[in-house]
Amino acid sequence: MTPVELSRTVLRAVRRAVDTGELKVSVPERAVVTRPGPGGCGDYATNIALQLARPAGQPAPRVAQVLKAHLLGLDGIGDVSVTGPGFLNISLRDDDAEAALARLVDGILSAGSEYGHAPRRAGAVVRIRCPRDVRALVVADAVARLLRSQGGRASIGCEEPLPAEWEHVLGLLGVRDVRGDAPDDGDASAGITVRPVPAPADPLPLGRDAARWALLLPAAHDRPRITDDHLVQRESNPLFRVRYAHARTRALSRNAADLGFSAQPGPVEAPRDLVTLLEDHPRVLERAAARRAPDCLARHLVGVADAVLPFLPSVLPRGEEKPSAAHRARLALAEAAGAVLAGGLSLLGIDAPDHL
């Protein structure tokens, strides 16, 4: 059971409780399901009881107990516990947890670098305005990419013409000169202004990838570091770790092909933090687009890289060991992480090389 499937299962339990008259609420469109936090247990947790407590006119722990009884009767649920102020902690059956991971990996590999993207939807074009500032333009470009990944449309307008080298070095294409344009009509969904703290130095000498990373990694209210540290090939450089992790996953695929096997999702002992990050990737993209915050995605990619790198040495057979189903499943998980890293870097306008 994937997080999306579990979210639907939780909503099914809510509907059962409403149908039996135990809860008098409107069934929400979505139940947020995440990995348990400190003090939690099981495979997943949801705050749906806290969300429904006020409209139900009941304490959250009572709502949680009602939902627990209905969840325990549904397929794939092994156990349910109530913790804290009313969190539901859900344990999947062991066989279902393995199948869920295999489906997650298979879904990522099927979507490739577009995992987490939403279907194109109708709606107003989000007009992104920014000053003639190199960091503002790079942030605006990344925000536009994120909005498009979530099915939206976006255009970028600058208050002054751009220097040609900005467009060439940083890949800032399609930026309009909006001087003289009529002001936005007040529709917040159709017009935003991007104005982060400016960079303290010219980032162009770093080149496109390092410059964009240096400008996008800090939050908009933080001043970026424009130093050669972004170019060094060592573990202290987060950009290097992200790109190196991706390159390692591609190298493993090539090495596996030389050994005569390929990736196949299946049961695998996977680092829990890595699985959590892969599951969360669609929500990270959605949140980064909604908040106009590409730094959320950049930090997420660092987390994925740091989680997958210790796992990679276990992927290929060692010595005289023959390739097995476990090796194919490990390779599939590694390739899934690589797809997330490649897709995320692309949305930041940064290259994800196969060799590094």
Written account of the structure:
There is one protein chain. By secondary structure, the chain is an alpha/beta fold. It folds into 3 domains: 3-92, Arginyl tRNA synthetase N-terminal domain (Gyrase A, domain 2, 2-Layer Sandwich); 126-222; 238-347, Isoleucyl-tRNA Synthetase, Domain 1. The protein is 47% helix and 10% strand. The protein has 11 helices and 8 strands. The strands form 2 sheets. It has a 4-stranded antiparallel beta sheet with strand order 1-2-4-3. Helix 1 (3-19) packs across helix 3, helix 5 (134-149) packs across helix 9 and helix 9 (272-290) runs antiparallel to helix 10. The longest helix has 23 residues, at 325-347. The radius of gyration is 23 Å and the shape is globular. Residues 242-356 form the DALR anticodon binding domain. It is an enzyme of class 6 (ligase). Its EC number is 6.1.1.19. InterPro entries: Arg-tRNA-ligase, Arg-tRNA-synth_N, Arg-tRNA-synth_N_sf, DALR_anticod-bd, tRNAsynth_Ia_anticodon-bd. This is arginine--tRNA ligase.
Concise overview:
With 356 residues, this protein is an alpha/beta fold. The protein contains eleven helices and eight strands.
Throw out a few tags for this protein.
alpha/beta, Gyrase A, domain 2, Isoleucyl-tRNA Synthetase, Domain 1, 356 residues, 4-stranded antiparallel sheet
Specify the biggest β-sheet.
Answer: 4 strands, antiparallel
CATH class category of the largest domain: Mainly Alpha
> Which second-level CATH architecture of the largest domain applies?
Orthogonal Bundle
Find the CATH superfamily of the largest domain. Isoleucyl-tRNA Synthetase, Domain 1
- Record field, number of beta strands: 8
Structural class: alpha/beta
Q: What is the beta-strand fraction?
A: 5-15%
- C-alpha-based Rg, rounded: 23 Å
**Number of alpha- plus pi-helical segments:** 11
Shape: globular
Keywords: ATP-binding, Ligase, Nucleotide-binding
Domain DALR anticodon binding: 242-356
EC number: 6.1.1.19
Domain Arginyl tRNA synthetase N-terminal: 4-92
